[in-house]
Amino acid sequence: MMNYIWGFLMVISVISSFVTGRIKELSDAVLNGAAESVEFIISILGMMALWTGIMKIAEKSHITDFLSKIFSPFIKLLFGNGSLNESAFKAVCMNITANLLGLGNAATPFGIKAMKEMQKSNLNSEYATNSMIMFIIVNTASLQLVPTFLCTLRQKNGSENPLNILPILWLTSIIALVFGVAITKLMEKAGNNNE
Amino acid sequence: MSNFGFYVIPVVLAITVILGILKKVSVFDVFLKGASEGINSTFSIAPSLIGLITAVSMIKASGALDIFANFAEPISNIIGIPAQIIPLAILKPISGSGSIALLDNIFKNFGTDTDIGKIASVIMGSTETTFYTLTVYFGCIGVKKLRHAVACALVTDLVAIVCSTILVKLF
Fold first, then answer.
1. Alpha helices, H only, chain A
2. Which of A90, A98, A122, B22 makes a 20 to 30 Å CA pair with A65?
3. Where along chain B do its domains lie?
4. Which of residues 31-90 of B touch A (CB under 8 A)?
5. Confidence band (pLDDT; 50, 70, 90) for B86?
6. Do A41 and B1 touch (CB under 8 A)?
């Protein structure tokens, strides 16, 4: 699937650039894109190191155990009982906490950790497990209490009340989450093993 | 209140470190151990990031999004999504920084507190950079068959986009 997505992006952009006559722009984008991606990796390197370091402290001082207890009914409902090993469970909790607090940059390292832990108990390592897909869906619905960056951008552009969209935003995220989880559960039941 | 955001990171860091010290954890040693794990996992996802970020900047430069927006317009008119929102709805699943630039543009042209400004804000906050998430999360562990992940994730995004339009118009 990943092969198709990447191939599709590449082929479509070359064809579109011929249609729109933006071949020079495309050629620049290839060169800049590769360079930009390295800049991006260096910039997340610090974030990754910082937040995985902080998570280790949180683990050793049992903060993650506490968070696991709070989220465990919710996670058991979504993932099913016992489908996550202990480390995966904790990483999922940390990821959800970071997302709720609007710390998107911190959520990614926890998410990667969660995926790695889930992969350890995956019997067929080329295939995504149900838990992995459910985890992606929970992330896609993107439930945040305070979307800091969005509110800052609204304020910067002269919003009278940057926070007044929050109730609609929460409601939308919750509806999307419920819907996404429902359809994922249906697909699990249907036993869809296609790519 | 909008300054609230600035408190989140320092407070989270302080609470973690203070609790660590109280529980007699050797905080710096433990931090170093975690940090080096973080560095290793970043390097392990580097190749897939380079491939995908390049592909995304190619898509942005090629004008494919404009072509796609033209096709999507009649469909979105049926659902009632304003035409000005469509490029954002298409770009958000692909590129976080690209969609921020686009959102800023929408705010400047249509204002933050108009229907369009509000719908754009809600879409921005309630959807994820889905393709980025899929690539990074599955790429870092070498899973190749994503099964129903892409379909379900995109449906979730679509529900959020439709909902944000309906709810903003309703309230």
1. 2-20, 23-60, 63-79, 86-100, 104-120, 130-141, 148-156, 166-190
2. A122
3. 1-44, 63-170
4. 31-39, 41-42, 45-46, 49-64, 66-67
5. confident
6. no
